[in-house]
Amino acid sequence: MSTARTTDLTSKEHLRLWLRLLGTTRRVEAVLRERLRTEFDTTLPRFDVLAALSRHPGGLKMNELSSQLKVSNGNVTGIISRLVEDGWVERIAIAEDRRATRIKLTETGKAQFNRMAAAHECWVDELFSNLSADAAHHMNELLAHLPLASGEPQ
């Protein structure tokens, strides 16, 4: 088989893999979005914000939060405003930078997020229940190599 044909076959296999990954991601996200909406009356973006803040007990500046979520500040601002109204997060003024605020989970926010995170973990377990621990580990190992090829950080 020629190198060009091998490359073409590899390219087609990569494209199939990409489409499979994308389709799987979309289906899983659709299930998670629906369950968050029906069981907690919340959205996946709100859950993502709460998850990022839960990993930083001291809170995050808005630009740090946006960077963590890989979205613009504008995308996060509305979500934060609603979470503040709900009493799940608070804005804390930063003395050394009057233009910036730190966003931090409240005790209510922590409790709500912990409930959602536990349910989220169960849902993900259910969605991937047909994979053994070994198969999941192997897939994780394989996928860990993808960012290295493009130079993107993991």
For the structure shown, list the relevant keywords:
154 residues, mainly alpha, Arc Repressor Mutant, subunit A, three-stranded antiparallel β-sheet, 7 helices
Structural class by secondary-structure content: mainly alpha
In CATH, the topology is named: Arc Repressor Mutant, subunit A
Q: How many structural domains are formed by the residues?
A: 1
CATH class annotation:
Mainly Alpha
* Sheet with most strands: strand arrangement: 1-3-2
Ends distance: 35 Å
Q: How many DSSP E strands?
A: 3
CATH level 4 superfamily:
Winged helix-like DNA-binding domain superfamily/Winged helix DNA-binding domain
Helix count from the secondary structure assignment: 7
What is the gyration radius calculated from CA atoms?
20 Å
Major β-sheet profile: 3 strands, antiparallel
Shape: globular
Low-pLDDT windows of residues: none
pLDDT averaged over residues: 91
| Helix content range | over 70%
Share of residues in strands: 5-15%
Instruction: Assign the CATH architecture.
Output: Orthogonal Bundle
